[in-house]
Amino acid sequence: MSTLPPCPKCNSEYTYEDGTMLICPECAHEWSAIAAEAAPEGDKVIKDSVGNVLQDGDTITVIKDLKIKGSSLVVKVGTKVKNIRLVDGDHDIDCKIDGIGAMKLKSEFVKKV
Ligand SMILES: [Zn+2]
Predict the structure, then answer these.
(1) How many CB atoms lie within 10 A of CB 59?
(2) Digitized pLDDT (tens) for each residue of the chain, 113 residues in all
(3) What pLDDT is recorded for position 79?
(4) What is the Å distance from ligand 1's center to 79 Cα?
(5) What is the pTM for the complete model shown?
(6) CATH fold of 1-38, please?
(7) How far is the centre of ligand 1, averaged over its atoms, from the C-alpha of 41 (Å)?
(8) In CATH, 59-112 is 2.30.30.40
């Protein structure tokens, strides 16, 4: 039994390998075996300051005072933040904090509750 994936174009099961390429003998479609095995999107794991895996909807607390750029507001250590949303980027948590509003935090400065 072949473990190769079927042709993405015509679904033929008779695909074969040629180096790093996969080839379909029925429609002559060629594609990269490496790309076909790439990890699915959303595989990135974001962890808090102590290594807990964070997920959308989690509640976290802030582990150090965080100054908000361009304002005099400070998110105090211990501030509880509900219903976080994970995003890509340097600041990987999107959230809304009572009394402050929508802002972004870094996962290294929070701890899952
Ligand atoms: Zn094909």
Answers:
(1) 13
(2) 457 889 999 999 999 999 889 999 999 999 987 654 555 555 678 999 999 999 999 999 999 999 988 888 899 999 999 999 999 888 999 999 988 899 999 999 999 99
(3) 95
(4) 56
(5) 0.60
(6) N-terminal domain of TfIIb (2.20.25)
(7) 25
(8) yes
Report the distance separating Cα 93 and Cα 110, nearest Å. 9
In angstroms, what is the span from residue 102 Cα to ligand 1's centroid? 49
3 Cα: distance to centroid of ligand 1 (angstroms): 16
CB 44 within 8 A of CB 93: no
Q: How far is the CA of 113 from the centre of ligand 1 (A)?
A: 50
What is the CA(101)–ligand 1 centre distance, in A? 52
List the chain domain ranges: 1-38, 59-112
CA distances from 110 to 21, 57, 72 (A): 44, 14, 21
